[in-house]
């Protein structure tokens, strides 16, 4: 970015503007004595390269290549040197002695290290000068191997310092990202997600399902998180600011880290059309299987009458019914079709794309589909103004059926299957009548076929950016940037349980919940950026000063009806109707200033400060300050550096602070509706509001080393220490106060961790290329201050009886504690000991690409409460063994259900074949440019000691402290794909 | 021309930017868009606001009722709850030696539920005392109502937990947790104060009560409810004479219908609650409800006197016996006909038994025997034929309470206060008998 910027800016004075324009438009008419003309081609593809910057070295004389890669430049004097540079290509020089026509071959820049990384709100630096460990995931890394449904799900094994939790295996979302550990106990733990400058909404929207299932809270409804609306294939790259030191400039929205997503943009030149088609299927990753019943064990467990039924079923069918296979055994068909066009001229570049993904789940009648349309336009109005517009419309639908925790709803499959005895016939008869389940109030086949839990979303994400060059001279460039955007989401949820459902008869008599939920988020910022070259160009200074504003509104309406008219699916057709509504409104504003200095690429230092206020704080107009500072030293840029083998040795250190205000509503002590016999009453709600609540503040210190060896090995090592002060705690109040919780700032938390990443191009010979990346990272947390007695975190577990997250000074925030013989004992910790990822890519015989990604999570425990259910229903697969029976005879406490949750998983594996160019040409002529075919798989195998479906699990959704507790989850799937990719 | 436009635009943008930087954007304090604030009703509440609080007290009186009945009933071997939560047949019966947990639903649900109602009543008292919208007489009505409800809830807490916290009006300065006798003394004083208030409250309340309080919805008739609770409190304190005095002003009567008394009513509308003790009956052998069912403890069936109609009216024989977690039962509940059937708060049947108990305590054994015969005859049983001694009549009294008040959160407390918990049967090897819930963990905070 930087090189391009300088050249264009230097050309902006007076008449040279006109000349530049003429140079661009009429390269042919300006023939003169010293004119060099030529064509620039891509060394890899042979295509022409447009918009390459060509400058006569040591002068301000320059031009750019036109759309067809042609250029013409008048040298001021001969001999001279022309410098050719373009983003994504190695810069090269050409000695020019005479007027002539040349062909320049530009090589694509091999080192990802030369990419630029966004560090300020309107500035970026070269990765080699970066002072933070900012992870970048490119499009190729994200979706290049295999098909991906959601962005967060696609990040497994690709970023150090991230912990991804899956709360549901249903297609279309249910993930949570944790960057560098837990940063909040009750506040937000999901990173801020910014797509093309727009703060996007990643809510989990409750559906009201709990009013039929008896679930305790909205977060047990297994709603997807709405990042699922973003098509991962639209993404050009993702930058992940993991800690406060990198994210400080985002102030009080940056505590859980920031994920900056840039979508694909037009590159200009000839219009290119790309078509991709994926076809695949979902299938269950891991089946638990049936308990191997014998007639004796049936009789011993349930008595002689059940034995007779068991024997009758065996006699009739020769085997037992396998309801696990019936429910979870679906092969879900997946199609993903994408079509995009990119092109443009020197003033306007565009990327227009559309995609449609349709994915069926491993449970019949579940699935996810998403239509995404995108138009990204970059336009240069004049030499002074340019703007960017990104528009994304998404329509997505999902059907997630019923999983997770419930209380006697007869809906959640994990519950139903735990109690269903496999000799009982639950299949509908010839008239379509489903038998009642004699052992649980729900027939899973009925639920699968007749009950619904759907959502649909219409969403527009619109980003804009206007860039104004206010002033330019040799040493100063002043820009003014306005950018921001709107994310509007209209979500509908629909839950339907027919009145003929077993648990509904005599009770609710049928249930419908229709949710209509609107979310509008608006963010904008105005920034002045001043680039100044000091010390004769040896010191580059980039200063910025800006203002930000954020407004988020939501309005959630849930209408529920029970006692339905026979067969009716409209809330209107119900006797009892309940409506509830939740409105929220948040406003933030802030100021920031930042100065970056770069001395000869040797020392790169940054100082910044942000001031923020928010309506979610106790005092909405109090400004909170968030400073940052960083320093990077590139030893290899010093003159004394002679060691050729080491081409990069960078020491970096950074410090920064971020914040996080309390959740909306924490300041209110409100009365809720509590009605009786038609009289409308008020009752205090459980929350005791805290009008003095402050934001929690994280301070992070990071130190690291980047090493580049022999041009083909890079190593990044980072240590961080992140302290969160004044943690927002929703602590339990004595129930006798009438309240159950209160939001306080009474604790501190520390996360420390190490991140290592090694990349190597091990082989790079003609017929064999192999590059590998290894990541290793770990995090340790500790509650360093707790000014209230230790407490069981409300809503994160099922009490100390079965095990719960327990906030205790001196202990990890992720510990699981249970009541064992009257003593509270730490029984586990969901934090992994460490995580590793091995990513390998091979190119064999030039046309074949083979890759695989292996992920290893070592250590960490889960609380497997699904087993509690199957033990109670006597259906756990191991109950024919003495171990199983011994467990059954042991007290039902947390020790019994805690299990190691480490695993090794083949996340991705792919094999692609690129048709030879010659073949493509002979078969399709010039219409088709290249064709790629491939097969791939996701989650192909997992090695784990965990006894349930998947150690990646969370019954309480993605928010807060949630991971690692399992109750009747949607089992996760593995996926197989066939890919076809054609470029025109 | 272009340059001029550019320049103008540039300077305009600069101006806008400077303006934004200088004019600090002030953020308005957000008022809760989702409900009224507590602060808003504590000073100068309108009558409508007071009445909403009063209704809220009656409404939240139902909080925690379901778990209170099923958990204490399980511990007292009256019933089992066969549902998907294994703790109902595990923890509560002390399975495999496990202890009760002070941070599980069974230990927190009733405590938090009852104190929510008490908090609402305390808010009502504070709001009523801090407004000019009502006169003295009206104020007395609100106060008498609120204090009576607090007294009632504290007794419910004592029955389950054996202790209670009485001074809870100030959430930031909670009083100590008191033992049963200290609490009962405070409850009786509070109920007496309420009685005085109600006597000064004129002819009618300013607030509406639900149909559950029909015939008890004026100050003078609400006193009958207040006095019945006072009688119960006195009996639990062991003071028969005081109980008998209180009963004279209550709705107690040996010839009054057994079901007379105020009730919790239920509804399925918004903000309302359904009957949490109702369970879907098993319709037939082909359609039994085996999922979420209250199964009668077999001992309750087997120990019943022959012909006791309470056995057949409160329970029904299941099409097939039920078993879960190595526990078995032949009968299931029929206590409530639907999920909106009212639950008695206190009914004359209980008051007759309280009268009998108070009479035993006061040494009026013939009165006790007469009262017990009313109960026996109502259940189609012949008159009491045992000896007229304190011990035997007490045994008979507890037995009648066992059948008259089945699954209404009495048995566990009755056995505890008469030190008879150890007489309960053990169903599985390794089970234990618990007779009191642990105070929730959060009370230590």
State the major sheet of chain A: 22 strands, antiparallel, barrel
Strand percentage of chain B = 5-15%
Strand count of chain B: 8
What is the element string of chain B, with H for helices and E for strands? HHHHEHHEEHHHEEHHEEEHHHH
Binned, the helix content of chain A reads 10-25%
How are strands sequenced across the largest beta sheet of chain B?
1-5
What is the mean pLDDT of chain A? 88
Helix content of chain B: 40-55%
Biggest β-sheet of chain B, characterized? 2 strands, antiparallel
Q: Indicate the multimeric state.
A: heterodimer
Radius of gyration of chain B: 27 Å
Please tell me what the overall shape of chain A is. globular
Total of helices of chain A: 14
Mean pLDDT across all residues of chain B, rounded?
A: 92
What sort of overall outline of chain B do the alpha carbons produce when their principal axes are compared? globular
- Helix vs. strand class of chain B: mainly alpha
**Which secondary-structure class do the elements of chain A indicate?**
mainly beta
Number of strands of chain A: 49
Secondary-structure blueprint of this entry?
The complex is a heterodimer of chains A (984) and B (445).
Chain A: H1 2-10, H2 14-25, E1 35-42, E2 53-56, E3 62-64, E4 70-74, E5 80-85, E6 92-96, E7 101-106, E8 116-118, E9 124-126, E10 135-138, H3 139-143, E11 162-166, E12 175-179, E13 192-195, E14 198-199, H4 210-213, E15 235-241, H5 244-247, E16 258-263, E17 269-284, H6 295-302, H7 304-317, H8 323-328, E18 332-344, E19 348-360, E20 367-380, E21 385-399, H9 413-419, H10 444-450, E22 452-472, E23 476-497, E24 511-534, E25 539-564, E26 574-599, E27 603-614, E28 624-634, E29 646-660, E30 671-673, E31 682-684, E32 687-688, E33 696-709, E34 713-732, E35 741-765, E36 768-786, E37 791-797, E38 804-807, E39 815-820, E40 823-829, E41 834-844, E42 848-858, E43 861-864, H11 866-872, H12 882-888, H13 894-897, E44 898-900, E45 903-914, H14 917-924, E46 930-938, E47 942-944, E48 965-966, E49 973-983
Helix pairs in contact in A: 6-7, 9-11
Chain B: H1 2-22, H2 38-42, H3 47-60, H4 65-75, E1 79-82, H5 105-129, H6 136-161, E2 164-165, E3 177-178, H7 180-199, H8 219-236, H9 240-248, E4 263-264, E5 293-296, H10 298-302, H11 309-314, E6 315-324, E7 327-333, E8 343-344, H12 348-362, H13 365-378, H14 390-404, H15 411-417
Helix pairs in contact in B: 3-5, 3-6, 4-5, 5-6, 6-7, 6-8, 7-8, 8-9, 8-12, 9-12, 12-13, 12-14, 13-14
């Amino acid at each position: 970015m930087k090189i391009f910027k300088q050249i264009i800016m230097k050309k902006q004075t007076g008449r040279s503007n006109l000349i530049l324009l003429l140079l661009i438009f009429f390269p042919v008419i300006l023939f003169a004595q010293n004119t060099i003309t030529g064509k620039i081609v891509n060394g890899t593809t042979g295509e022409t390269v447009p918009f390459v910057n060509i400058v006569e070295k040591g002068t301000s004389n320059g031009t750019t290549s036109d759309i067809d890669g042609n250029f013409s430049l008048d040298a001021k004097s001969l001999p001279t040197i022309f410098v050719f540079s373009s983003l994504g290509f190695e810069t090269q020089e050409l000695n020019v002695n005479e007027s002539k026509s040349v062909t320049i071959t530009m090589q694509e820049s091999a080192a990802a290290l030369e990419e630029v990384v966004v560090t300020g709100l309107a500035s970026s630096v070269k990765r080699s000068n970066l002072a933070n460990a900012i992870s970048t995931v490119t499009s190729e890394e994200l979706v290049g191997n295999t098909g991906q449904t959601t962005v967060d799900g696609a990040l497994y094994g690709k970023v150090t310092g991230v912990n991804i939790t899956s709360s549901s295996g249903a297609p279309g979302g249910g993930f949570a990202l944790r960057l560098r550990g837990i940063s909040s106990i009750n506040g937000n733990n999901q990173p801020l997600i910014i797509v093309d400058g727009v703060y996007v909404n990643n809510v989990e929207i409750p559906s009201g399902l709990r009013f039929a299932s008896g679930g305790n809270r909205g977060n047990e409804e297994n709603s997807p998180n709405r990042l699922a609306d973003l098509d991962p294939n639209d993404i050009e790259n993702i930058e992940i600011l993991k800690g406060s030191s990198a994210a400080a400039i985002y102030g009080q929205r940056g505590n859980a880290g920031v994920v900056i997503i840039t979508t694909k943009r037009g590159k200009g030149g000839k219009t290119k059309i790309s078509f991709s088609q994926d076809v695949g299927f979902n299938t269950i990753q891991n089946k638990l299987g049936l308990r191997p019943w014998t007639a004796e064990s049936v009789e011993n467990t349930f008595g002689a009458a059940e034995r007779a039924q068991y024997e009758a079923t065996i006699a009739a069918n020769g085997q037992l019914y396998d309801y696990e296979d019936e429910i979870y055994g679906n092969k879900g068909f997946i199609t993903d079709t994408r079509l995009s066009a990119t092109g443009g001229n020197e003033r306007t570049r565009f990327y227009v794309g559309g995609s449609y993904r349709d994915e069926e789940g491993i449970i019949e009648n579940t699935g996810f589909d998403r239509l995404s349309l995108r138009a990204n336009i970059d336009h240069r109005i004049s030499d002074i103004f340019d703007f960017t517009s990104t528009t994304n419309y998404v329509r997505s639908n999902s059907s997630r059926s019923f999983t997770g925790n419930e209380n006697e709803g007869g809906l959640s499959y994990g519950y139903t299957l735990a109690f269903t005895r496999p000799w009982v016939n639950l299949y509908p008869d010839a008239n379509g009548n489903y038998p009642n389940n004699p052992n649980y109030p729900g027939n899973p086949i009925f639920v699968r076929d007749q009950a619904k839990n759907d959502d649909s979303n219409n969403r527009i994400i619109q980003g804009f950016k206007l860039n104004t060059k206010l002033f330019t001279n040799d040493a100063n460039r002043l820009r003014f940037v306005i950018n921001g955007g709107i994310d509007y989401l209209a979500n509908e949820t629909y839950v339907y349980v027919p009145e003929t459902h077993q648990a509904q008869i005599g009770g609710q008599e049928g249930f419908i919940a229709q949710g209509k939920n609107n979310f509008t988020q608006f963010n904008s910022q105005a920034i002045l950026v001043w680039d100044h070259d000091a010390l004769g160009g040896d010191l580059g200074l980039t200063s910025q000063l800006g203002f930000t504003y954020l407004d988020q509104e939501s309005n959630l309406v849930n209408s529920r009806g029970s006692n339905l008219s026979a067969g009716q699916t409209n809330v209107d057709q119900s006797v009892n109707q309940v409506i509830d509504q939740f409105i929220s409104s948040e406003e933030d504003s802030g100021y920031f200033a930042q100065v970056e200095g770069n001395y000869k690429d040797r020392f790169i230092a940054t100082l910044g400060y942000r001031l923020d206020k928010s309506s979610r704080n106790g005092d909405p107009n109090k400004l909170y300050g968030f400073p940052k500072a960083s320093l990077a030293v590139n030893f290899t840029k010093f003159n004394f550096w002679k060691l050729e083998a080491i081409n990069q040795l960078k020491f970096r250190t950074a410090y920064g602070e971020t914040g996080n205000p309390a959740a909306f509503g924490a300041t209110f002590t409100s009365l809720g509706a509590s009605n009786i016999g038609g009289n409308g009453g008020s009752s205090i709600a459980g929350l005791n509001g805290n009008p003095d609540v402050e934001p929690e503040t994280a301070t992070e210190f990071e130190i690291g080393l980047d090493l580049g060896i022999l041009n083909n090995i890079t190593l990044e090592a980072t240590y961080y220490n992140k302290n969160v002060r004044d943690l927002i705690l929703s602590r339990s109040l004595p129930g006798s106060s009438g309240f159950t919780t209160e939001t306080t700032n009474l604790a501190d938390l520390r996360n420390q961790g190490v991140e290592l990443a090694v990349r190597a191009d091990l082989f790079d010979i003609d017929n064999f290329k192999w590059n590998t990346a290894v990541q290793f990272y770990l995090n340790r947390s500790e509650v360093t201050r707790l000014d209230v007695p230790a407490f069981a975190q409300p809503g994160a577990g099922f009490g100390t009886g079965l095990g719960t997250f327990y906030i205790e000074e001196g202990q990890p925030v992720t510990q699981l504690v249970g009541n064992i013989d009257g003593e509270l004992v730490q029984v586990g910790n969901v934090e992994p000991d460490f995580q590793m990822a091995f990513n390998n890519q091979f190119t064999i015989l030039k046309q074949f690409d083979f890759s695989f990604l292996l992920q290893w999570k070592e250590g960490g425990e889960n609380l497997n409460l699904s087993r509690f259910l199957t033990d109670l229903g006597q259906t756990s697969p191991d109950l024919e063994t003495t171990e199983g029976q011994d467990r059954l005879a042991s007290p039902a406490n947390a020790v019994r259900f805690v299990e190691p949750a480490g695993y090794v998983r083949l996340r991705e594996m792919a094999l692609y074949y690129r048709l030879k160019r010659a073949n493509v040409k002979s078969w399709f002529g010039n219409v088709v440019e290249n064709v790629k075919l491939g097969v791939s798989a996701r989650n192909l195998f997992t090695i784990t000691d965990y006894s349930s479906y998947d150690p990646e699990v969370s019954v309480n959704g993605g928010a807060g402290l949630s991971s690692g507790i399992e109750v009747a989850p949607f089992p996760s799937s593995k996926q197989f794909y066939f890919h076809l990719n054609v470029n025109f | 021309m272009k340059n001029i436009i550019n320049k103008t635009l540039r300077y305009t943008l600069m101006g806008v930017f400077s303006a934004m930087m200088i004019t600090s954007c002030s953020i308005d304090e957000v008022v809760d868009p989702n409900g009224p604030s507590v602060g808003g009703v504590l000073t100068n509440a309108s009558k409508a606001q007071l009445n909403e609080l009063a209704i809220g007290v009656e409404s939240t009186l139902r909080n925690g009722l379901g778990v209170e009945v099923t958990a204490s009933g399980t511990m007292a071997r009256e019933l089992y709850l066969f549902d998907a939560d294994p703790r109902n047949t595990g923890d509560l019966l002390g399975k495999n030696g496990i202890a009760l947990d002070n941070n599980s639903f069974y230990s927190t649900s009733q405590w938090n539920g009852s104190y929510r109602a008490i908090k609402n009543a305390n808010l009502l008292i504070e709001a009523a005392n801090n407004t000019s919208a009502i006169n003295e007489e009206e104020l007395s009505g609100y106060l008498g109502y609120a204090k009576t409800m607090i007294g009632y809830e504290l007794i419910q807490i004592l029955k389950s937990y054996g202790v209670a916290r009485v001074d809870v009006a100030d959430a930031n300065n909670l009083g100590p947790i008191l033992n049963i006798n200290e609490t009962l003394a405070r409850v009786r004083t509070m109920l007496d104060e309420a009685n005085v208030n109600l006597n000064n409250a004129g002819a009618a309340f300013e607030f509406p009560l639900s149909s559950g309080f029909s015939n008890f919805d004026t100050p003078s008739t609400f006193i009958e409810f207040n006095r019945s609770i006072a009688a119960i409190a006195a009996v639990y304190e062991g003071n028969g004479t005081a109980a008998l005095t209180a009963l004279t002003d209550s709705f107690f009567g040996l010839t009054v219908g057994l079901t007379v008394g105020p009730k919790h009513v239920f509804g399925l509308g918004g903000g309302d609650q359904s009957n949490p003790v109702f369970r879907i009956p098993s319709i037939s052998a082909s359609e039994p409800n085996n999922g979420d069912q209250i199964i009668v403890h077999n001992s309750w069936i087997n120990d019943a006197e022959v012909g006791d109609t309470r056995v057949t009216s409160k329970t029904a024989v299941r099409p097939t016996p039920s078993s879960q977690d190595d526990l078995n039962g032949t009968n299931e509940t029929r206590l409530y006909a639907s999920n909106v059937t009212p639950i008695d708060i206190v009914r004359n049947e209980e008051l007759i038994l309280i009268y009998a108990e108070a009479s035993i305590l006061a040494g009026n054994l013939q009165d006790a025997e007469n009262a017990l015969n009313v109960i026996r005859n109502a259940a189609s049983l012949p008159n009491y034929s045992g000896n007229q001694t304190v011990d035997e009549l007490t045994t008979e009294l507890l037995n009648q309470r066992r059948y008259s008040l089945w699954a209404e959160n009495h048995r566990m407390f009755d056995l505890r206060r008469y030190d008879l918990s150890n007489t309960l049967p053990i169903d599985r090897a390794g089970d234990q008998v618990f007779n009191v819930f642990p105070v929730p963990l959060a009370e230590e905070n």
